[in-house]
Amino acid sequence: MPAHDAYGQASRHEPYAQEPHQRGTDLDALRSAYRLLRRASTLTALGSFVVYVVLSCGAPGLMGGAEVAGELSLGMALGILQLGVTFAAVFWYGRSARRSVDPLARAIRERAATTARNAGAPR
């Protein structure tokens, strides 16, 4: 049985009590954006690392023997490139989160705060 306020009306303390359909849609969009961002950045960093490891194990002569410039072998060059790919994936993740995930989370948070304030107000 719902609790009643001083005016005898049922009080709503649940965020989004007035907009259940909106809540599900917003949260689904946020989950989807976050999931896509997480998968893309993880696969980028992990994929480049797996390629490096497979080449190191499968073709050690190529990785250690092929010289790119002077004393720099292909393995060392790809190792340095691996650092660059990792930093790029982290940078891209942060930039994309600020553009796609953070605005959705902010809108949901503001809507929840507004709904909570309105639910506590006398009617």
Give the topology, please.
Blueprint: H1 20-58, H2 60-65, E1 67-69, E2 72-73, H3 74-120
Antiparallel strand pairs: 1-2
Helix pairs in contact: 1-3
Structural class of the helices, strands and pairings? mainly alpha
Succession of helices and strands: HHEEH
How does the major sheet shape up? Answer: 2 strands, antiparallel
Percent of residues in β-strands: under 5%
* Overall residue-averaged pLDDT value: 79
Strands, count: 2
Number of helices, counting only DSSP H or I runs of 4 residues or more:
3
Radius of gyration in whole Å, from Cα? 26 Å
Principal-axis shape equals rod-shaped
The spatial strand order of the largest sheet comes to 1-2
What percent of the residues sit in helical stretches (DSSP H or I)?
over 70%
The low-confidence parts are 9-18
Could you tell me how far the N terminus lies from the C terminus, measured between alpha carbons in angstroms? 19 Å
Overview of the molecule:
75% of the residues lie in helices and 4% in strands. The longest helix has 47 residues, at 74-120. It has helices at 20-58, 60-65, 74-120; strands spanning 67-69, 72-73. Strand 1 (67-69) and strand 2 (72-73) form a beta hairpin. 1% of the residues are buried. The protein is rod-shaped. It has three helices and two strands. The chain starts with 19 loop residues before the first helix and ends with a helix. The chain has 123 residues and is mainly alpha-helical. The protein has a two-stranded antiparallel ribbon.
